[in-house]
Every structure is written in structure tokens, then in C-alpha cells.
From TrEMBL:
Family: Belongs to the GPN-loop GTPase family.
UniProt xrefs under Pfam families: ATP_bind_1
Listed CDD domains: Ras_like_GTPase
Protein's name according to its UniProt entry: ATP/GTP-binding protein
UniProt KW Metal-binding keyword: no
Keywords, comma-separated and alphabetical: GTP-binding, Hydrolase, Nucleotide-binding
A GO term, aspect molecular function: hydrolase activity
Stored SUPFAM superfamilies: P-loop containing nucleoside triphosphate hydrolases
């Protein structure tokens, strides 16, 4: 709870506005890392070890050092201002877990589509999902060490995004970088909501 003072000097409780944001993207794009980097609480993680049985369906090309995967969701919380709290829900990246997305998306203000330029095609499904459902999203290009850097317009063209969809570069390990992404999502979602009326 946040406390404020009225003109009469009495203390009153001000309930914060809480907003739900999804964090989606391909397998190994950094969704769990992003939620963990910015969460002010210990994030809830539902990670399991990658196994030999999953080898035929989990393409680790480009992310060979990955040893775990999210099987349900990641959850974190961040307070952007004293009266604005974001609840972050990280989605699983593999298509066999997409049945969870509809539940996770219920009530979401907006989303982050985390993209890895080494495997850009892996985020097409998330872009398509949010476009079809009219959920405002920002594409955040996770700048992995050693990965080629591309201008925002090149990423926009490659993903065939609508002109108003924000594309930002980020480092999913860095709190301030992730906060900038989340601010972009909230601002974009609020503008989209105002346009829809």
C-alpha cells in the first residue's frame, strides 16, 4: 500500500494501479533473465532441465549453453512509480506450451516480444499471437554478446511490423535496460487503448 496525505492532514490509503504485462518470445531469447533482472521480488520460475527426450523438439542451435527451459511461466513484480505496479508473466518459448498463453494473456495490458537476432524467426509466433488478439506489444531486441547488431528499422522490416509498433534494443540482464522496455510497453499500450476509445 502507498500512503498519502489529504489536505486535512489525515492519512489515506492510495491503492496502486496494477498492470499485467506478458513477456514472450522464442526459446532461449532471454525471457526468464529479463523477468529476473527487473523484479523487485524473488521471481517465481517454473524451469526444468532440458533432457535427452526433448532433443528432437527443442532446437538449441544458437543457444547451445542453455540447460533449462520454462514449462509454465515466470512471474515477477516491479513498481515503476509509487502508484504504478507491473506484474510480469513470462511465457514458455516452445510451441508445445502455447496452450498456456491464452490463460496468461487474460487481462494483460500489453506485452514484450523478446527477439534474438540470431534466431529472429522464433519470435514470429509471438508477434502473430498479439497482433491477432489486439494486444499492444513492444519488440525488444535482446543484444546478446557476439550477436550481430541490426538497426531497429531492419528488425521492423524483417518482422513485418505495423509502423506504430515500438522496436527497442535492450540487454535483458540489465535492470535499467529492462525498465526502459517496460516503460515503452506501458506507453504504447496506453496510447493504443486511448485510440480504441
Amino acid at each position: 500500500m502507498v500512503y498519502g496525505h489529504s489536505d486535512l492532514g489525515r492519512s489515506e490509503v492510495i491503492d496502486p494501479i496494477t498492470l499485467k504485462i506478458l513477456v514472450a518470445g522464442g526459446f532461449g531469447a532471454g525471457k526468464t533473465t529479463l523477468v529476473g533482472a527487473v523484479s523487485e521480488i524473488k521471481p517465481l520460475r517454473t524451469e526444468e532441465l532440458l533432457t535427452e527426450a526433448g532433443r528432437p523438439v527443442d532446437d538449441v542451435a544458437g543457444v547451445e549453453t542453455k540447460t533449462t527451459t520454462t514449462v509454465a511461466m515466470d512471474f515477477g513484480r516491479i513498481t515503476l512509480r509509487e502508484n504504478l505496479v507491473l506484474y510480469l508473466f513470462g511465457t514458455p518459448g516452445q510451441d508445445r506450451f502455447w496452450f498456456l498463453w491464452d490463460e496468461l494473456a487474460t487481462g494483460a495490458l500489453g506485452a514484450v516480444v523478446l527477439a534474438d537476432t540470431r534466431r529472429l524467426e522464433d519470435c514470429f509466433a509471438a508477434v502473430d499471437y498479439f497482433e491477432r488478439r489486439g494486444i499492444a506489444f513492444t519488440v525488444a531486441v535482446n543484444c546478446f554478446d557476439g550477436a550481430a547488431r541490426f538497426p531497429e528499422e531492419a528488425v521492423r522490416d524483417a518482422l513485418d511490423l505495423d509502423p506504430g509498433t515500438p522496436v527497442v534494443l535492450c540487454d535483458a540482464r540489465q535492470r535499467e535496460s529492462v525498465k526502459s522496455v517496460l516503460i515503452s510497453v506501458v506507453e504504447h499500450a496506453m496510447m493504443a487503448s486511448a485510440v480504441r476509445g
